[in-house]
Each structure stands twice: as structure tokens, then as C-alpha cells.
Write a structure and sequence with these properties.
It contains 2 helices and 7 strands, in the order ββββαβββα. By secondary structure, the protein is an alpha/beta fold. It has one domain.
């Protein structure tokens, strides 16, 4: 399988959305430029951490430059785009800021999952060394797009079950 490396510079849109009923939702990070759309599967916890990190980054930049970045959620289309065909599941994400361009880059790296035969190793805790480079998608976004992504992500995470402690478990009640 060939390594995926995509640079969306700058994105036309970036969003987080879900598919499926509460308790069984699949979270997607999606961005696009022209006819190219990158859909990536992320975990709910990753979505929550991403929303918080982006919010803090934009707040810090606003404070540094004595500005207030607003996001018009009605103007920006934050819905997932069809068809939603995930390129990969995300292992980790990072944020960076290009001061000259006043743009934020969101980098998503592919999770590499390998099936391995335990008989190959003497120690059952020994891990196969990484032999494959993970795929990477870089999304260059404006501060307004990042503020909107932060707000959208927090909203999407909160739309889940009322009690997140129930996270897919059956709870028995006795009277």
C-alpha cells in the first residue's frame, strides 16, 4: 500500500462530524480544497482534545496580536461532504502556526496497525519495529476556520449521550 501524503493549502473547508446513532457514532475530521476531499476517522477523545487545543491556540494568538477572531457558523458550511470515504484512522494530530501567512496547519498522521505472529518474538512484549511510514494530511486553515472548527467540535462531542459514563455499557438497576 502506498503512503498517503496530502497537502491542502489552503483548505476551502474543514469540519468534524459524525455518522451513526448516539453511542455508536463514528467521528470524522474532513477537509477539502477544490475537488480533493480528505476524510479521516478520529476517536471522540481526539475530537474533544482537538477542539480544546484549537480554541486555546486561537485564544493565545488573539491575545498576542490583540485581535478577536470570530467565526460565523452560519456562513461557514460545517457539514460533512459526501461521499465520506475515510483515507485512514488518525493516530495523532498536531497544530502549527505560520506567522507570515497567518495560517494554522493541522497535521493528521495515520495509525499503522499490524497483525503479527507472536511466535516471531521471544519476549511477548517485544514490538515489531516500524517499517512503514504513516500517511499524513496537512490542512492549512485561516484563524476563522480554526475558531469555527473548535466550536463545531465541542458542539458535536456534546451531542452524544447525556451521561458519557454510559459509554456503550449496559447499566443494571435493582429496586
Amino acid at each position: 500500500m502506498s503512503r498517503i501524503e496530502i497537502e491542502l493549502d489552503p483548505v476551502d473547508f474543514v469540519t468534524v462530524g459524525t455518522i451513526g446513532p448516539k453511542g455508536k457514532r463514528v467521528f470524522y475530521l474532513q477537509a477539502g480544497k477544490a475537488n480533493q476531499v480528505a476524510s479521516l476517522v478520529i476517536e471522540k477523545e481526539q475530537a474533544m482534545a482537538l477542539g480544546e487545543a484549537i480554541g486555546e491556540l486561537v485564544d493565545d494568538l488573539d491575545e498576542r496580536y490583540e485581535e478577536q477572531t470570530e467565526a460565523d457558523m452560519e456562513l461557514l458550511d460545517m457539514d460533512l461532504r459526501e461521499p465520506i470515504e475515510p483515507m485512514f484512522r488518525v493516530a495523532q494530530m498536531g497544530l502549527g502556526y505560520d506567522e507570515d501567512r497567518r495560517m494554522v496547519v493541522l497535521v493528521a498522521q495515520e495509525m499503522i496497525v499490524r497483525a503479527r505472529d507472536d511466535s516471531e518474538f521471544d519476549d511477548p512484549l517485544e514490538v515489531e519495529p516500524e517499517t512503514e511510514d504513516p500517511g499524513v494530511v496537512r490542512m492549512w486553515c485561516s484563524l476563522e476556520q480554526m475558531r469555527a472548527l473548535s466550536l463545531r467540535t465541542v458542539q458535536i462531542v456534546r451531542e452524544g449521550r447525556a451521561d458519557p459514563k454510559q459509554n456503550g455499557r449496559i447499566i443494571y438497576y435493582w429496586t
